[in-house]
Amino acid sequence: MATFTDTTSFTPRGAQGTPLREGWFTRAENWLDDRGRGAWIAALVLGLVFFWPVGLALLAYMIWSKRMFSSATKHRFGGTMQRSFAMGRPTGNAAFDTYKADTLRRLQEEQDSFESFLERLREAKDKSEFDTFLDERETRKNDAPQV
Length: 147
What we know:
The longest helix has 50 residues, at 94-143. Helices cover 67% and strands 0% of the residues. The chain has helices at 24-35, 37-50, 52-64, 72-76, 80-84, 94-143. Helix 2 runs antiparallel to helix 3 (52-64). The model is unreliable at 1-11 and 72-84 (pLDDT under 50). The chain folds into 2 domains: 23-77; 93-140. It is flat, with a radius of gyration of 31 Å. By secondary structure, the chain is an all-alpha fold.
């Protein structure tokens, strides 16, 4: 009787042929990454409160994986920051690209208009405050006893 010994282990593969490592730790890590740095800090505090070795292990992992001190855009947003810079690139659909260009132009005009409105509002407020200051100064000067 022949025996078959396989020394390789079976590793499930994803769509691109990469190994799937979807254990509970990876799922928890992804869940915390989706919620950002605050979720990691909350998990750290809860770990320290309920069972300090777990909190200490989380702190060590956060420092080791650079989640504690790295920018939030790397872990929290994944690739969305890179996608936002691609807004100016054409999509290949002429109708959509025209619509997008018109919308962006209109939004830019509205933003410029609003910023000029805010500037006029600030100038009017500054002028009003300065006029009030001059009036109060004139009143104080007239009310002061003359020597």
